Amino acid sequence: MPYAADYRTKVFRYNLKPQMDDNDDIFWKYFVVTDMEIWACSGKGTFEDRFYRIVSKLHGTSEIIKNIFYYDGVEVKIVPALSNNGDRKIQTVEIREVKYLRASDYKVLRYDGFVTLKSPDYRSVVSMFKPLDVFEDNRNVKGIVLHQDNVGPKITSLRGVGTLGEDLSVGSNPKKSVGTDKDIAVCTRVTDDPRLYTPQFLPKARKLHPSEGDNKPKGTDEIPVSSGEYVTMDLKEFSNYFTVTHQELWRCTIKEQKDSEKIFLRRVTELIGRKAVKSLEQSQALDVWNYKLKEDLKQTNKIQTTKSLKLREYYYFLPQSNEQVNFCK
């Protein structure tokens, strides 16, 4: 249970009064969790000596304009944040916390000793994110490291994410191509483009607005889709559903005959969902994970779990026209 209250990083909001408060609403207002590791540790082997090592990584959901106070075991890094427009760059924080909890009662411990970290003895990657559609191809050919993104043959696919929440559509598909399957593009990172972390560089996101009289039950085991129309989110709604945790821009060149070359740009954007999602209609160039967003005990004494998404979009486009393209199709 990655989001159990005992594991969650404590976030306190300082008020004018000399008091602090911490609850789930405050936490989710200011942060999303981008990763979490839970390690079971033991000392002499007795139950009393057993404890957990919790490593949490958080990303701010909005601009941080005042002070942040933090304790031992917490690292803070200033990172870019999504701005409302391109006129002013804003920043937020990336936080990494390491803490130790006593196994018997989840009380926070101080531990000054060393730990030996033993990875699980199976191939599955232990992660809070479950891959739904993730592809990555890295290979070494004659000393050259080659990478291929998730831009497979599928056009648009629909998949179930959870049993509760909204029906979303993310991404877009190109109509033109550049290069062939025999080409190798050499890409160089661009870090000073003013469009990074602005609305101009966001993936297209839409939410399904059900038709009038649509009373279909929500939360079936099949892919739960209501009839209606997908409507594009504005910036405010997008920010309520997603936090941009990372964005890159690359300038890619394809060498051609007679010393000519073709150039396209490669944009990579990572998002963490902040609200429950029921289904996702995705474009062909999207890596998709889901994760447990929250667990509540219903009045029927059944655990109700909501899930959200982690997304990585690969977007190729031409520098002159900004037109989206495929590469090697």
- Major sheet summary line: 6 strands, antiparallel
Structural class: mainly beta
Residue windows where pLDDT falls under 50 for at least 5 positions: 217-224
Give the % helix: under 10%
> What is Rg?
22 Å
**Domain tally:** 2
The largest beta-sheet arranges its strands as 8-20-21-18-17-14
Q: What do these coordinates show?
A:
The protein has 329 residues and is mainly beta. The chain contains two helices and 22 strands. About 2% of the residues have low confidence.
Helix and strand layout, with pairings?
Blueprint: E1 13-14, E2 20-21, H1 24-30, E3 31-41, E4 51-60, E5 74-81, E6 90-102, E7 108-109, E8 130-133, E9 137-141, E10 144-148, E11 157-160, E12 166-170, E13 176-178, E14 185-190, E15 205-210, E16 228-232, H2 235-241, E17 242-255, E18 261-273, E19 277-282, E20 286-297, E21 303-317, E22 325-327
Parallel strand pairs: 12-19, 13-22
Antiparallel strand pairs: 1-2, 3-4, 4-6, 5-6, 6-7, 8-20, 9-10, 11-19, 12-15, 14-17, 15-16, 17-18, 18-21, 20-21
Based on the model shown, name its key terms.
single chain; 329 residues; mainly beta; 2 domains; six-stranded antiparallel β-sheet; five-stranded antiparallel β-sheet; 4% helix; globular
Summarize the structure in short.
This protein is mainly beta and 329 residues long. Helix content is 4%, strand content 47%. The chain has two helices and 22 strands.
